[in-house]
Write a structure and sequence with these properties.
- It is built from 12 helices and 7 strands.
- It has 284 residues and is of the alpha/beta class.
- It has 2 domains: 4-166 and 246-282, Rossmann fold (3-Layer(aba) Sandwich), CATH 3.40.50.150; 169-241, no CATH class.
- The radius of gyration is 19 Å and the shape is globular.
Length: 284
C-alpha cells in the first residue's frame, strides 16, 4: 500500500483514469448548504441504531467519513471520535466541520487513510463502535474492506455498516452506467446524468405535481433534506457517478460476519438498490 504522503497521488491517479468518482468534491458542495436541523437529524439516526451505546466513555471510528457529518454527530453525543477517508477532499470536509463546530477539540482526530491498508489500520487500534455508512462498496475491493473492519472492533463492541443491495441485473446495469460516467470527459458528465436520470426524475416531478407538493419538491432539490444529508441534486450526482460500485444481499453480509464472531443485532433491509443498514456486535 502507498505511504500516507502517496495517498493523494494514488487517489488523483484513479480519478484521472476514470476508476474513481470524486466523492469529496460532492461533499464539499453539500457542506455549503449544511444546516443545524440536518446535524440534529444525523444525531437522531445514530441514536436510533446505536442507542445508549453511543455515550461519553465510548470510542467511535468513522471509516470513510465523507462530509464528517456522522463524526460530528457522534462527537456531540459524547464519543471520542477518529475519522479517516481515502479521498483528500472528504478529509478536508471533515476537518472543516470540526473547525466550524468544535475547533481545537482534542477528542476528535481527522486523518487520511485507506480501509485497504492493513498497516495503517494496525496503527489505529480498536474501538467500541466502528461505523462505515455507504463506504465499503466504493473501495474497489468490498469484501476485503468488509474483512478489514473486523479487527478494528473491540470484543463486545459494535460494527455499523451500510452496503448496497444486490438487485440482480439492475445492479449490473448501474455498475456499467457508473463506470461509463467516470470514463467520460468532465464536460460531458452533467449531460450524462440528465440522460440517465431524467426518466426517473420525471416520475417524481409528476407525482409531486399531482399531490400538490411541487414547492416541496423544488425545495428538496437543493436543501440538505435527504437521509444521507445531501440535497436531492447531490444525491443524484453521487448515485450516478458513485464508482467503484459493489453490492451484496443482506443474507450474504450477515453470513460473512456471523462466521467470524459477529452477531447481527439490528437489521434494516433495503428492498430496492439502496443500502442495507446492519449493526453487528463482536462477541467477547
Amino acid at each position: 500500500m502507498p505511504t500516507d504522503s502517496e495517498l493523494p497521488i494514488q487517489h488523483e491517479r484513479e480519478v484521472r483514469a476514470g476508476h474513481r468518482f470524486q466523492f469529496g468534491a460532492n461533499w464539499t458542495r453539500f457542506l455549503r448548504r449544511l444546516n443545524d436541523a440536518r446535524i440534529a437529524e444525523a444525531g437522531s439516526n445514530l441514536k436510533e441504531f446505536l442507542g445508549a451505546e453511543l455515550c461519553h466513555d465510548k470510542t467511535f471510528l468513522d471509516v470513510g467519513s465523507g462530509s464528517g457529518l456522522s463524526s460530528l454527530a457522534a462527537r456531540r453525543l459524547g464519543a471520542t471520535v477518529t475519522s479517516f477517508d481515502f479521498d483528500p477532499q472528504s478529509v478536508a470536509c471533515t476537518a472543516e466541520l470540526r473547525r466550524r463546530y468544535l475547533a481545537g477539540d482534542s477528542a476528535w482526530t481527522v486523518e487520511q487513510g485507506s480501509i485497504l491498508d492493513k498497516r495503517y489500520l494496525r496503527s489505529l487500534g480498536q474501538f467500541d463502535i466502528v461505523y462505515s455508512w455507504g463506504v465499503l462498496h466504493h473501495t474497489g475491493a468490498m469484501w476485503q474492506a468488509m474483512e478489514n473492519v473486523k479487527s478494528l472492533v473491540k470484543p463486545g463492541g459494535l460494527l455499523f455498516i451500510a452496503i448496497y443491495n444486490d438487485c440482480g441485473e439492475i445492479s449490473r446495469v448501474w455498475h456499467q452506467r457508473k463506470r461509463r460516467y467516470n470514463g467520460l470527459p468532465r464536460v460531458l458528465r452533467p449531460l450524462y446524468v440528465l440522460y440517465v436520470w431524467a426518466p426517473i426524475e420525471l416520475r417524481t416531478l409528476l407525482s409531486s405535481l399531482y399531490s400538490g407538493r411541487l414547492k416541496t419538491y423544488f425545495s428538496e432539490l437543493t436543501s440538505a433534506s435527504s437521509q444521507r444529508g445531501m440535497s436531492r441534486v447531490h444525491d443524484i450526482v453521487d448515485w450516478v457517478g458513485g464508482y467503484p460500485y459493489e453490492y451484496a444481499s443482506v443474507s450474504a453480509i450477515i453470513r460473512f460476519y456471523e462466521t467470524d464472531d459477529f452477531q447481527s443485532v439490528k437489521v434494516r433491509e433495503n428492498g430496492s438498490y439502496g443500502c442495507h443498514q446492519i449493526v453487528f456486535r463482536r462477541r467477547q
